[in-house]
C-alpha cells in the first residue's frame, strides 16, 4: 500500500507513504484535485523528529477507519515544514488568527479548495476524545458538515482572515519615535523583565534556549563596557543561562548536542529531539562566551557538540543532516534514559560514586521512573565533596562517561532526518567556524569549509539557491533564510580563513538576495522569492524565534558585506530593511534582537581590519586581534596571493604581514606590528 508520498524525498513524507490515507504532497495536482472535487483540503504539517506528529500518525493516520473518513470527505495533503517553511509560516499565522492560540506541530487545518484559506485549525487531535479535545474522526465529520451547510459564513470568515494577514507586516502606526540607542536600551530592559533569575533563561516552562536573546545581552554588555559603563547584570544573565543549559538535562552529557527545549523550568527534562539549527546557534554563542575567559563547562559543551555534529550529523560529502528524532522504539527519550542499576552494573564503585553525585542518580528519578542525566552542581563542588584530587576525578568521570556512551550506542537509535537544509547548514557552518577559532581546532574549520563547498556544488545552480537536498536531488527554490543565513556564515568563514571562492560566492549570494526578495516599495525582504508560488500571504519575518528572522540576518550580513567590499547597493538594502522594520522594532524591541544587532552596527560600524601577508603568517595576527570578545571588530586575513579581494585595498608585496584599518572606500597607512595596530585601535 502506498500513496503519492512514495515518490517524495522528505523523510517525514516518506514516513506517511504507506498510510491508508490517500496523502498527496502540496503540488498543483493536489490543489487541482481539490478544486475539481469540491472537497476541502485537510492540510497536515509536521516534521520527522516531532513526537506528537508520530503520536497522531499512529493513532489516526495508520487507522483504516479514520483514513476512510479522511479519504471520503477531504483531499489530504501532507507537508514537511522543514522543506516548505513558507507554507508553515503562513498557516501557523492563520492558525493563531483563527484560534487566538499559539500553534505547533502537527498543525492541522481545513482549507477552502478554491481559495486555500483555512476555515478551521488546530494542532494535535487524539483518535478518541481526551485532553478536552474531540476525537479526530468525529471532528472530521463535524468539519465536513459545517463546510457543506455554512459556506456563506465560512466565505466571510475567510475574507476577514485574508484581510488580517495583509496587515500583519504593515503596522498601522509608525512606532513611538524612540531613538536608536533608546530602542536598544529598552530591549535590554524588557529582556531583564522576562529573565528567570533563579534558573536562567526567559519565562517559565517550557523553556527554549533562545540564542538570539542571549547574544543581544552579550553584545549589549560588551558595547556598554567599551563605553566605560559595565553591565554586570546583563553578563550574569547570559552566563547563568549558559551554565544552567550546559549542566541541564537539555544537554546530552554523554554524546554532546542540545535538545530542542526543556519541558520544565529547571532545564532538567528535555523534549528529546535534537535539531541542527539549535546546535549551530549554541555553538556560536558558547564560542563567543569563551572569548570572555576560559570555562571548562562551556569548553566541554562546545567540544562535545562539535564532535557530535561530525560523528552523527555529517554527510560524507560535507553537509550536515537536519535532526535526530525524540523517539526510539516508539517511546520518547528511551535512547537517553537510565535506570540506577544499569549504571551501577556498568561502572566501578569509584566511577559510580562520581556519576551518582554529579548527575543526581541518588535523587528521585526525573523522567517516568528513569534518570535523564542532569548536573546538579558544579564539577569543582562535586570533586571537593568526594574528597578527590582533580586529576583523579577527571579520569573517573571520563572513563565512566565512555562506558555509558558505549553501552548507549548498543541501543536502538532515534530516527535520523538525513536531508540537507541550506538555512540550517548555514547556522551550523557559522557555529563550527566560530568554535574552531575560539578553541583553535582546524578540523572544525575544515568541516565548515566542506559544508559550504557542498552547498555551492549541490544547491547553487546558475545563480539560484535551493533549500533542500537529499540523495542527489536539490528541491524547492531557496527562501530568505537560506540566502541570509548562508551569507552570514560565509562572512564568518571569510574572517576565519579567506578563500577567493567564498568571497565570490558571498557577493553573488548578496546580489541574489536583493534581486529576488527585496520589497522595492517599502523596503525589507519577503520570505519567499518573487518567482515563488503565490500563497494567501507573503510574510516579511522580523521577530526572533527558535531561528533568527531573515530580515534581521539579511540586514546585518548585507551591511557587513557592503563595508567589506565597498558596495553601496548592499548597504542601501540593509538600511532599507531596518527602516521597514522600524515600527515593529519600536512596538516590541526585545522581540527583534537580531535586527537590533544590525541597527547597532549601522550606528557604529566598528573596526574593519584587513591583514595582508602569507597565509602562514596571518594566523598569528588574527589570533592576537580576535582573542577577546569584541563584537564591533571584524578582522579579515587576506593572503597576498588572493585574487578576489576588495578593490580599494592598497597593493602589498612580500609575505610579511601588514594591516589596514578601513572605512568606506579608504584604508589607513599600512601597519606592520600587531602591538602598533592595537595601540591605534585603542
List keywords for this structure.
single chain; 682 residues; alpha+beta; 6-stranded antiparallel β-sheet; 4-stranded mixed β-sheet; 18 strands; 50% helix; globular
Fold and architecture overview:
The chain is an alpha+beta fold and 682 residues long. The chain contains 25 helices and 18 strands. Strand 17 and strand 18 (666-667) form a beta hairpin. Helix 8 (180-194) crosses helix 9 and helix 9 (211-226) runs antiparallel to helix 10.
The whole-number mean of residue pLDDT values reads: 95
Amino-to-carboxy terminus distance: 70 Å
User: Which class best fits the helix and strand makeup?
Assistant: alpha+beta
* Helix residue percentage: 40-55%
Task: Please state the CA-atom Rg, rounded to the nearest Å.
Answer: 26 Å
Low-confidence spans? none
Strand content: 5-15%
Which oligomeric state applies?
Answer: single chain
Any idea what the shape is?
globular
Tell me about the biggest sheet? 6 strands, antiparallel
Total count of strands: 18
Number of helices: 25
At a glance:
Helices cover 50% and strands 11% of the residues. The protein is of the alpha+beta class and 682 residues long.
Fold topology:
Elements: H1 11-15, H2 28-37, E1 41-46, H3 51-61, H4 64-73, E2 75-80, H5 85-99, E3 107-111, E4 118-122, H6 136-149, H7 151-167, H8 180-194, H9 211-226, H10 232-247, E5 261-262, E6 270-271, E7 274-275, H11 276-290, H12 296-312, E8 321-324, E9 327-328, E10 331-332, H13 340-346, H14 349-359, H15 379-385, H16 390-408, E11 416-421, H17 422-439, H18 442-458, E12 460-461, E13 464-470, E14 473-477, H19 480-496, H20 500-517, H21 550-565, H22 568-587, H23 593-603, E15 607-613, H24 615-626, E16 633-639, E17 658-663, E18 666-667, H25 674-681
Parallel strand pairs: 1-2, 15-16
Antiparallel strand pairs: 1-3, 3-4, 5-6, 7-8, 8-11, 9-10, 11-13, 12-13, 13-14, 15-17, 17-18
Helix pairs in contact: 4-6, 8-9, 8-23, 9-10, 9-11, 9-23, 11-12, 11-17, 14-16, 17-18, 17-19, 18-19, 19-20, 19-21, 21-22, 21-23, 22-23
